[in-house]
Automatic annotation (TrEMBL):
<comment type="similarity">
    <text>Belongs to the ABC transporter superfamily.</text>
</comment>
<dbReference type="InterPro" id="IPR003439">
    <property type="entry name" value="ABC_transporter-like_ATP-bd"/>
</dbReference>
<dbReference type="GO" id="GO:0005524">
    <property type="term" value="F:ATP binding"/>
</dbReference>
<dbReference type="GO" id="GO:0016887">
    <property type="term" value="F:ATP hydrolysis activity"/>
</dbReference>
<dbReference type="GO" id="GO:0061693">
    <property type="term" value="F:alpha-D-ribose 1-methylphosphonate 5-triphosphate synthase activity"/>
</dbReference>
<keyword id="KW-0067">ATP-binding</keyword>
<feature type="domain" description="ABC transporter">
    <location>
        <begin position="5"/>
        <end position="231"/>
    </location>
</feature>
<keyword id="KW-0547">Nucleotide-binding</keyword>
<protein>
    <submittedName>
        <fullName>Alpha-D-ribose 1-methylphosphonate 5-triphosphate synthase subunit PhnL</fullName>
        <ecNumber>2.7.8.37</ecNumber>
    </submittedName>
</protein>
<dbReference type="InterPro" id="IPR003593">
    <property type="entry name" value="AAA+_ATPase"/>
</dbReference>
<dbReference type="Pfam" id="PF00005">
    <property type="entry name" value="ABC_tran"/>
</dbReference>
<dbReference type="InterPro" id="IPR012701">
    <property type="entry name" value="CP_lyase_PhnL"/>
</dbReference>
<keyword id="KW-0808">Transferase</keyword>
<dbReference type="InterPro" id="IPR027417">
    <property type="entry name" value="P-loop_NTPase"/>
</dbReference>
Length: 231
């Protein structure tokens, strides 16, 4: 099979009933992504970039179009139509998602969050603990924060933890939604190093970036979005 991910004529819109508005978020999107490729998407806020990633991760159900994904376990599946049980499996084992926002169970420490991601993949507790230490050290999250709850963290600290949790799994497909939005230059470089490592390992990636400089030399292809369409 030539592709890891094939998005065909994807469209998604939203109706805001109390305002009587119908917003076309993403229209007729087509992407063909080979294994190990990394494409970048740029565009203004509200142009529909995140909607594409959320449809691929199935947080949103597309209105029309197909999202074909070449799964290691299930073979070629249409994410637009796959049952929930298999989609949950794909999120746990094959498809990673990094957003600007950290959604975690309350009263779970930073280290436990990263360890849980590794345990979900079927690894031992010892291996999960080792990988969590490596990842938290890489992102230079203060050692005192490892056993703290993330609701006390700054925006940048939460984002670093979110990236660590997704990348520690070494997913087959990784969706990056503004992964450097609130990071300083040193932290951005840490993200870049890990993206380059994942690329070498063969991870397929789609990333949304406002920071054009960050994309230089990373992306195999770039798309720009305006008003819900690639231009």
């Amino acid at each position: 099979m030539e592709y890891m991910l094939k998005v065909e004529n994807l469209s998604k819109s939203f109706t805001i009933h109390n305002l009587g508005k119908h917003i076309k978020a993403s229209q007729d999107i087509n992407i063909n992504l080979k294994e190990g490729e990394f494409i970048g998407i740029t565009g203004r806020s509200g142009s529909g970039k995140s909607t594409i990633l959320k449809c691929i991760y199935r947080t949103y159900l597309p209105e029309k179009g197909n999202i074909w994904y070449n799964s290691k376990k299930f073979g070629n599946v249409n994410i637009s139509a796959i049952d929930e049980r298999r989609m949950v499996y794909l999120r746990k084992h094959e498809i990673g998602y990094v957003s600007q926002f950290l959604n975690v169970m309350p009263r779970t420490t930073a280290k436990e969050i990263v360890e849980q991601a590794v345990l979900e993949m079927g690894h031992t507790k010892e291996y999960a603990a080792e990988e969590a230490v490596k990842m938290l050290s890489h992102f230079e999250l203060d050692y005192e924060l490892w056993d703290s709850y993330p609701n006390t963290f700054s925006g940048g600290e939460k984002l670093r933890l979110n990236i660590a949790r997704a990348m520690v799994k070494h997913p087959r497909l990784l969706l990056l939604d503004e992964p450097t939005a609130s990071l300083d230059d040193a932290s951005k470089e840490k993200v870049r190093v890990l993206i380059e490592q994942l690329k070498r390992e063969g991870t397929t990636m789609i990333g949304i970036f406002h920071d054009i400089d960050f994309m230089t030399g990373l992306c195999d292809r770039k798309y720009n979005m305006q008003a819900g369409k690639f231009v």
